[in-house]
Design goal:
nine-stranded antiparallel β-sheet, six-stranded antiparallel β-sheet, alpha+beta, 292 residues, globular
């Protein structure tokens, strides 16, 4: 049985009356709810797939240029959301997802049956204060430290950035345990491989030379950038909080497990206590590329 997935769509622009219309609701404008941070949100339960939609702001049909866009058969530009089955990655600016058994979906989120379904909700945020200030706030809220470690990420490529131009990143993480990771863009999706054998095979295809990762790097690649990082993992009650610093980019992943409605409420409460901000993809990308 295919599970419905709960997705949240946000609007962070101006407007006192914000709605959304798309293929998921037969293009009938549906109200969004204003949040304390000034953004607007609507939560939908959808089957996995791709859906085109637009925002309706003060009666004007508009798109969010910071989110994925596509053109329909008539050439009209729309935003598009892709709903995937499986675990939430937490790597999205505008949504989090929760698996809901299809048989309970018709009753809605307020039905007793749906409210008892256990789900995992994840959302990524930006820090409003410093890394250390956020750690101190966790301590003040009776947080329990699970893990805290520092690391150095080294990125490799050819002299002419051949891999980067193809959407491929090779990273070596140096810390207590060294590890390799290869990230690539495949069919507009980010694929991540942490298995050393898989990384080696993919690297052989990209570079056209056989050998171990270390041998290929030594003879064909060079260090392009080095980023210092830190990860601190905490729990506050049943909520898991992971603070990450990679160079100038600081983010927080909040993960809550429980019934759907309560989990979403607890996630928002945790974000408010820690003074977390909405994660803005463009501004964080600017920090990574030096254009911020």
């Amino acid at each position: 049985m295919t599970d419905l997935v709960e997705v949240s769509i946000r609007w962070r622009g101006e407007g006192d009356n914000v709605q959304v219309a798309g293929e998921f609701n037969s293009w009938a404008p549906q109200d969004l709810t204003k949040q304390e941070d000034g953004s607007w949100i609507v939560r939908l339960s959808l089957l996995p797939g791709k859906y085109m939609y637009k925002f309706v702001v003060e009666g004007d049909w508009v798109i969010n240029q910071d989110m994925p866009t596509v053109s329909d058969d008539e050439g009209n530009k729309n935003n598009q959301i892709e709903v995937e089955d499986g675990e939430a990655s937490g790597d999205s600016d505008s949504w989090e997802k929760v698996s809901i058994p299809e048989g309970d979906a018709d009753a809605g989120l307020n039905s007793p049956t749906t409210m008892q379904k256990i789900a995992k909700v994840e959302r990524i945020f930006s820090l409003s204060s410093t890394f250390d200030d956020t750690v101190n706030t966790l301590k003040e809220n009776n947080g329990t430290l699970v893990e805290d470690k520092s690391f150095t990420d080294v990125y490799y490529d050819t002299e002419d950035y051949a891999m980067l131009r193809k959407g491929v990143w090779l990273r070596k993480r140096m810390g207590e345990v060294e590890s390799w990771q290869l990230r690539s863009i495949v069919s507009q999706e980010l694929k991540i491989s942490d298995d050393k054998d898989d990384v080696s095979k993919r690297l052989e295809l990209e570079i056209g030379e056989e050998g171990s990762i270390e041998d290929i790097v030594k003879s064909n690649l060079q260090e392009m950038t080095r980023v210092e990082g830190r990860m601190s993992k905490w729990t506050v009650g049943e909520t898991e909080i992971e603070i990450r610093k990679e160079g100038d980019v600081e983010t927080v992943l909040v993960r809550v497990v429980g019934d759907i409605v309560t989990a979403l409420k607890d996630l928002e409460t945790s974000a408010e206590k820690l003074n977390l901000a909405c994660f803005h993809v463009l501004s964080q990308a600017g920090k990574l590329t030096g254009t911020a």
